[in-house]
Amino acid sequence: MDRNELNTVQFGSVAQEYLHSPVHAQGADLDRLRTMAQKCRPKAVLDLGCGAGHASFAVAPYAGTITAYDPLESMLEQVAAEAKNRGHHNIGIGTGPAEQLPYTDAEFDWIISRYSAHHWTDVPKALTEIRRVLKPDGLLVLIDSAAPEIPALDTFINAVEILRDPSHVRNYRLSEWTSMLTRAGLQVTLQERWQIRLDFNSWVARMRTPEVRVQAIRDLIDGAATEAKEHFHFEGDHSFQLDTVAIHAVT
Fold it and tell me: How far is CA 212 from the centre of its chain?
């Protein structure tokens, strides 16, 4: 099974859950996107790996056109229906991987990627494509789950993520993102890091993780080193805090 097929299996039947997931539908990062869009009024926006479309919906009232782009038709169907319900007639859809964008050079003022990049199979190639389709002085806003800089904690959280979702590729460290963006010819102008609380039961239920893997995650958490327990703030029901980053980069 290739990566696209694996993504389809993992996410093809859960679009509705991601539309209503508080982790994805809410957050200070969405509020900041709204504020930025209201101030900047971008003419053309690409929501790369749009998922259920929350970033598109946040900026739609203040943007010219938005292209919600995702490899999964089921997600795009959900976005199109919800955009119509909300009256966002400036949202269109496109399908394909981040590594191969069917758009002309310098087409977009903004590219937003929110909670998608940890599924990309070839990040350097995707960033090259992002650089290509961004206009001069265009802006990339990248928001994603991340790994801590400490190698043992990096290994731990990526093991947990892959057990929960086999389509997960990697949560990258902030330092890795900075290096990859620079090599792609993008200039990093802002870096932020915070943690979001994940309710364990809803987190695994949203992905319909098999019980044997759920138990494996619980076992990993129960046996975690003190350093991991302190960093991820594990709770009695195995809920925890996940590192998240926001990075702005310009052409």
Answer: 26
Q: If 0-12 CB within 10 Å is exposed, 13-18 middle and 19+ buried, where does residue 104 land?
A: exposed
pLDDT in tens, 70-128: 999 989 999 999 999 999 999 999 999 999 999 999 999 999 999 999 999 999 999 99
3-state secondary structure of 71: coil
List phi, psi (to 5°) of 172.
-90, 155
Max CA distance (Å), the chain: 51
156 touches 219 (CB < 8 A): no
Cβ(28)–Cβ(7) below 8 Å: no
Q: Cα separation of 193 and 206, whole Å?
A: 24
Q: Is 223 exposed, middle or buried (0-12, 13-18, 19+ CB in 10 A)?
A: exposed
> pTM of this prediction?
0.89
**For residue 99, what are the CA distances in angstroms to 102, 125, 132, 199, 217?**
10, 5, 11, 32, 31
